[in-house]
Backbone:
């Protein structure tokens, strides 16, 4: 466990926190006027290893050697020139900070951090963090890496859960969730059941890895929800006809994948960031990472278990019994997460994959 303290005066700025993996959807911008919830679970923090936030530089302004050193293999519109190592936490875990009024502009329905740090240390006024709570952005506080220090508060390090313990814990991420937005009939908020933004972000990253693993050949995925999430886009972007590469779900609690599996869709450990790998070296398939909660739902889908209810629910409460209705729209991977991942895969330097990347930019509405 750690607390983060002000680099200027040493004042504590957070509650005690334990480190977890940076969520795939950390920088996701979702829809328009959407009220997204808090990004991080209480009591946790994650680190963004790449530069993020202002100032920004256009692609043409960056030296090719710097791009190669940063692991960027295809053109992007802009890149952050900020300091790497920003720490993200839940807003409720912040301590001893005050808003900086002159840094709170440029937003739509809340704070977006576009002007740089908007929270200062209450004790010494050093700008230390950015509060984000604007519409279509995940609510979070990003601690500036050059303005805070990490201090241990517990000498005993808790061991990460094993893969078996994670499966037994059963913390899966449902594919559907209620989405809330502003701008209803009376200019208030309204909500509906939708595909989960977390799933769309996870699929955006996984799709980039699936394309890289395809080697330019058709790819098939397991029937059911996995097919609904991936197969439509794969069929559009990849050529038809044999030979076909076969992707299967693999991971803890599942049988060892067949020897003829070409691609393994596997979980990422939520605490360590480790990508699951089969114990047998005889399985050479290409791994495609999914956040553990999304993978767990695909591997072990949860049935709806009806429970008796009493009383009358208020008319403005969104019911989840009977089961949440299936969204009426096609599943669409998140385009921002897809492109962010794709330009960082060395395989995108190949001509055929670069053409797919350019095609998705031109015709993204069909896919995303």
Residues:
């Amino acid at each position: 466990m750690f607390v983060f303290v002000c680099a200027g005066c040493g004042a504590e700025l957070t509650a005690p926190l334990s480190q977890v993996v940076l969520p795939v959807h950390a920088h996701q911008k979702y829809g328009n006027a959407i009220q997204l919830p808090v990004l991080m679970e209480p009591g946790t923090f994650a680190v963004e290893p790449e530069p993020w936030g202002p100032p920004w530089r256009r692609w043409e302004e960056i030296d090719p050697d710097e791009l190669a050193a940063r692991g960027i293999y295809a053109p992007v519109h802009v890149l952050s020139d900020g300091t790497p190592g920003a720490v993200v936490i839940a807003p409720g875990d912040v301590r001893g900070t005050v808003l900086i009024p002159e840094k709170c502009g440029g937003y739509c329905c809340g704070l977006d951090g576009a002007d740089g740090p908007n929270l200062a240390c209450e004790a010494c006024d050093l700008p230390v963090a950015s509060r984000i709570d604007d519409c279509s952005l995940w609510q979070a506080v990003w601690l500036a890496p050059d303005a805070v220090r990490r201090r241990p508060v517990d000498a005993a390090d808790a061991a990460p859960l094993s893969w078996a313990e994670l499966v037994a814990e059963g913390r899966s991420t449902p594919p559907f969730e209620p989405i809330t937005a502003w701008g209803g009939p009376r200019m208030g908020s309204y909500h509906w059941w939708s595909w989960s933004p977390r799933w769309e972000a996870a699929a955006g990253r996984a799709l980039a890895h699936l394309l890289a693993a395809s080697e330019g050949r058709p790819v098939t995925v397991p029937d059911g929800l996995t097919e609904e999430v991936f197969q439509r886009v794969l069929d559009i972007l990849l050529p038809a006809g044999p030979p076909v590469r076969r992707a299967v779900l693999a991971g803890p609690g599942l049988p060892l994948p067949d020897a003829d599996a070409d691609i393994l869709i596997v979980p990422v450990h939520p605490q360590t960031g480790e990508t699951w790998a089969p114990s047998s070296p005889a399985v050479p398939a290409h791994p495609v990472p999914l956040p553990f909660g999304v993978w767990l739902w695909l591997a072990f889908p949860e049935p709806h278990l009806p429970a008796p209810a009493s009383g009358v629910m208020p008319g403005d409460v969104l019911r989840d019994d009977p089961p949440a209705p299936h969204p009426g729209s096609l599943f669409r991977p998140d385009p921002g997460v897809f492109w962010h991942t794709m330009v960082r895969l060395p395989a995108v330097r190949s001509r055929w994959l670069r053409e797919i990347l350019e095609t998705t930019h031109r015709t993204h509405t069909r896919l995303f």
The chain is about 20% helix and 20% strand. The helical segments are 64-69, 163-169, 197-214, 225-237, 292-299, 335-342, 351-362, 364-367.
